[in-house]
Write a structure and sequence with these properties.
Mean pLDDT: 93
Shape: globular
Radius of gyration: 21 Å
Largest sheet: 6 strands, mixed
Helix content: 40-55%
Number of helices: 9
Structural class: alpha+beta
């Protein structure tokens, strides 16, 4: 389970990050031609490929893209085996978005890796730092300002893609498309008042224990995740005139679903 800690309105939210297109299609199974922690694309296995000994973070994603050139079908991921048996679960995942940069690929790879490391029946969280992944490196203030200037001065939106490309800021738009492949849900009953955590870090920092350093690292991660998400939301506001709503609580998602169903029924009527 990938957890993105993020500061929001004087609170620290813990957000579970998954892929919208990843569906667990089988549980408690074992296939003779598919070991645990496997990636299968168009019948080809990562463990049989030239990428099997590649320890780089992006090897699995590169394998997926390379073997999807001709046929862009859904691919499969197997989890690790259960602790008490040789059985595992299987995910079916839609094709990954096209490459934008290393940082976004690192984010996608982190989710793939999390599924491959999942042990059925066991919840084990891993923190996600957008900064360490390099997600925010290309979101510079200069590029965002240029984006804003263009949007304000050019009213014909059909002209934007060509201008964005010419000005070297098309990757900002591509970034929004990329991150919308992720499902980000606030984990219930894990929200912490920012003031409370600040007080704990300040009080315990004199001890300089590992636990204190971990707590300070967690808080700093939540702050940096907030800063990067704020830039993404600002870009979304500039282009689409609305804030980014990628991160939502379960209640917000339920309300959105009810609204969508109501709109569909209204049109049908």
């Amino acid at each position: 389970m990938l957890i993105l800690p993020i500061v929001n309105r004087n609170r620290i939210l813990n957000v579970e990050v998954k892929l919208k297109s990843a569906d667990k299609i089988r549980t408690g199974v074992k296939f003779s031609d598919a070991p645990e922690s496997e990636v299968i694309v168009n019948g080809k296995r990562l463990s049989d490929s030239s990428y099997k000994d590649d320890r780089s973070d992006g090897a699995a994603l590169e394998f997926i893209r390379t073997n999807s050139v001709r046929f862009k079908r859904n691919y499969l991921i197997t989890t690790r085996q259960e602790n008490s048996s040789s059985l595992y679960d299987v995910y079916e995942v839609s094709q990954p978005p096209r490459r934008v940069n290393d940082g976004l690929d690192n984010l996608y790879t982190s989710v793939i890796t999390d599924m491959r490391k999942e042990i059925p029946g066991i919840k084990r969280g891993r923190y996600l730092s957008l900064e360490k992944l390099g997600v925010g490196e290309h979101l510079t203030d200069d590029k965002i300002q240029r984006l804003q200037d263009i949007v304000r001065s050019v009213r014909d939106t059909s002209e934007w893609p060509l201008i964005f490309e010419r000005e070297g800021i098309a990757d900002l738009v591509d970034t929004l498309e990329f991150i919308n492949h992720f499902d980000c849900t606030v984990v219930e009953d894990t929200t912490i008042p920012e003031e409370t955590l600040q007080g704990m870090v300040e009080t315990l920092k004199k001890l300089n224990t590992r636990e204190t350093r971990n707590l300070a690292s967690y808080y700093n991660m939540a702050l940096s995740n907030r800063d990067i998400y704020s830039k993404l939301s600002n870009i979304n506001k500039i282009i689409y005139d609305k804030p980014l709503t990628l991160i939502q609580s379960k209640r917000q998602k339920q309300k959105q679903l009810v609204k969508s169903v109501g709109e569909v029924n209204g049109k049908a009527a």
